[in-house]
Model the fold of this input.
Amino acid sequence: MEPQRTVKLWAMILAASPLLTTVLSVAAALGYAGVAVAQRHLGGQATRNGLTLAWLLHAAVLASSLLVSPPMFGFAPALSVTAWLVLLVYAVESHVYPQLKARTSLLALGLASVMLAWLFPGSTYPTVKSGWLPLHWALGIAAYGLIAAAVVHAWWMQRVEKHMRRASEPSEAGIPLLAIERLTFRFVSAGFVLLSATLLAGWWFAEDLYSKAWVWDHKTVFSVLSWVVFAVLLVGRWQLGWRGRTAVRILYAGSGLLMLAYVGSRFVMEVVLHRS
Done:
């Protein structure tokens, strides 16, 4: 069977029943919860296997809403995709750094994002008007995921630094502090590149994507502001050696603006104003 037909078949199966989506969501949530509860009694490999299973169930949940025609999307699915990408990064890192400990906070993030997307599945999107639109979406979602991964690593970095100052266990996150710092800014740099590509595609193909010229709406304004903040952070890092609290605070500020760009606006539309 051709790959394209196989993907369509699985999309039809996953979208065949809302009950199936509910079952997959509950199974993924229970998978994350099970790993969080049992990780102290499991070995490293068993924990990674359990996380992989939960992550695959999470992927099936996303497929059940994103691969249908027309697709469903909103603020909660966007958070769910972001959490899924962060967990993917974590899974890869756990193989590179076998000493990396499973983070209960990350497992809780996966669980919460799955259930939130189940409660607020978003709204259906019209037929794709341009072949560039899926690329635009993919770039934006990937940028969200990489920036979110940078935020998680920055939080780890602060935790490890605090433990070191208290003369407690220096490798609280399972990775040396300098390694976490390098990973943080690699994710920031990669996320900045993808965010730049997303904005460039949105501006260049505005007519094709949305049948209108570039508009300075709230989503565009917050996206551009976040781009400026990340640009300042990277320049300050390379030219002025910014690190520690200063760099982390700027990272948090840029991430907050980026979150407001889509997730914040869609939350207001879907939950506060009850509009699709």
